[in-house]
Design a protein that fits this description.
Blueprint: E1 2-7, H1 16-28, E2 33-36, H2 55-63, E3 70-73, E4 76-77, H3 83-96, E5 101-106, H4 124-142, E6 147-150, E7 155-159, E8 173-180, H5 190-196, E9 200-206, H6 218-235, E10 244-249, H7 256-269, E11 273-276, H8 290-298
Length: 302
Amino acid sequence: MRFGVTLPNVGYGGDPATLTQLAVDAEEAGWDGVFFWDTPYAAAPDEPPMWFADAWVLLSAIAVRTERVRLGTMLTPLAWHRPWLIARQAATLDRLSGGRLTLSVGLGAPDDEGPWFGGDAFDRRTRAAMLDEALAVLDGLWSGKPFAYEGEHFSHREVTFLPRPLQQPRIPVWVVGAWPRDPAMWPRRKSMRRAIRYDGLLPNVFDGNGEFVFETTPEESLDDLSAMSAWVERERPAGEGPYDIVVERSLADLDDDAARAEAARWEEAGATWWLDDAWQEMWAAPDDPEPLRRRIRRGPPR
């Protein structure tokens, strides 16, 4: 299992120097990855104003301050972006970092994230179709061969996109997969099948009504992950290369021995990456990065 931290580019994370140093701290403490939200968040009229910073600019700065740690978004809502712009940003960052980028993608949440800044509102089904098209555009452009695309939502004339990303056959792409707990819904695993076409799974769980499951016990979550892992092993074509299953949970309240034991349980259930979301402490103290810095400097629970 590899271990990463998800850093908040909001609150104190709106200061690029603070976030860059936290990422350097993470590499020095032995973490394997550093990830950032990729969102246009800004405070709504009923929320207190907060600082925000752009994930791609931060990742570029960190790429030149680090040598080993893997870098990525968590996650990029492709329906709210032009995929050829993400393709160019990602390819540039992949080369700048020496081939250390992972791109995480999903439909985007909340549903109205795009219209916050004048974009269109799309329902989940439409955003899923847009995600499929955007992923096809990324694959085609990153090939470095002449490529044109004509879809319902995205299209572009034939272009040759160079340079290709340093990582081949492509930058690793982790995709959100919606796992239905209700066996009656198992034939409707379209998002899971999308995820296994790429390089990693970001698991979400849905109930029998198709609603996202927010509250769950660790045992239930472990059972869900075991079932997903077994399904991926069974359904993903052989010879497709390594595949990641990513969990994002906090170990902040556990001592080192307990954290190692907890991480081991998730690894046994099939997880290959653990992203520590200790950034949630930020909401309690949005102006104080020291609690997160202390957590990072403890290092991963190997």
